[in-house]
Amino acid sequence: MNTEELVTLLATRADPVDPGIAARRFALALLVAALGSLLLMKGVYGLRPDLSFAAQTGLFWAKFALPACISIGALAATSRLSRPGVKAGRAWWVVGAPVVLVWVAGALLVGAAAPEDRSSLILGISWRSCPFNILLLSIPGFVTVFLAVKGLGPTNLRLAGAAAALLASSIATMVYCFHCPEMSPAFWSIWYIAGMGLVSAIGAMAGPKLLRW
């Protein structure tokens, strides 16, 4: 049997690909990730006591918008990298834009503050635990998003793992906002980003093993 005959044989036996399978996989993965992180957050940390008041402020929703915007870019990157031979393209720009904006906002805030107030704006009261709290809350999403990605046949496993982990951690960070008392953009620009970066680094290291198909 020559090559052309083999290709013809494989093509005639191939089932049609469902164009909506990726969307359904990611929709289910994100739903489970969000619910899992929420239940974990409520069980381990609890909601912040003044949430009803904080949620009435623009600053709270600005904090929430940081991981929410990152999640949009991370989802675009993950969905593209889940397909064989496809690059993330401009999705990384969508990820980077909110990071740059919060860095600028944090720098302006610290620069305008009195010298004795700057450390509290940057460190808050939870800088030691914040990245690791995000890491813990990312576990449900890490599992579900990796399962969704693996079933779609990624080829750049390290980069796909980093994107999938960033998606999981951005969802976890959105959930974490409902517990975290920090209201300084200077804090979010360092410690929220550090938490998401930590999970992404783990995803990059685990990708070649966990996403192999």
Identify the notable features of this structure and list them briefly.
213 residues; mainly alpha; 0% strand; globular
Written overview of the protein:
It comes from Paraburkholderia silvatlantica. The chain has 213 residues and is mainly α. It has one domain. Helix content is 74%, strand content 0%. The model has no long low-confidence stretch (mean pLDDT 91).
Q: Give the low-pLDDT segments.
A: none
Termini separation (Å)? Answer: 27 Å
How would you sum up the major sheet?
none
Q: Roughly how many Å is the radius of gyration? A: 20 Å
* Helix residue percentage: over 70%
Sheet/helix structural class: mainly alpha
Give the SSE order as H and E letters: HHHHHHHHHH
What form results from the Cα inertia axes? Answer: globular
Tally the helices: what do you get?
A: 10
- Chain-averaged pLDDT: 91
- Strand fraction equals under 5%
Number of strands: 0
The total number of structural domains is 1
Write the layout of secondary structure elements.
Blueprint lengths: L2 H11 L7 H24 L6 H4 L3 H24 L9 H22 L5 H6 L6 H8 L1 H12 L6 H20 L8 H26 L3
InterPro entries: NrsF
Protein name: DUF1109 domain-containing protein
Keywords: Membrane, Transmembrane, Transmembrane helix
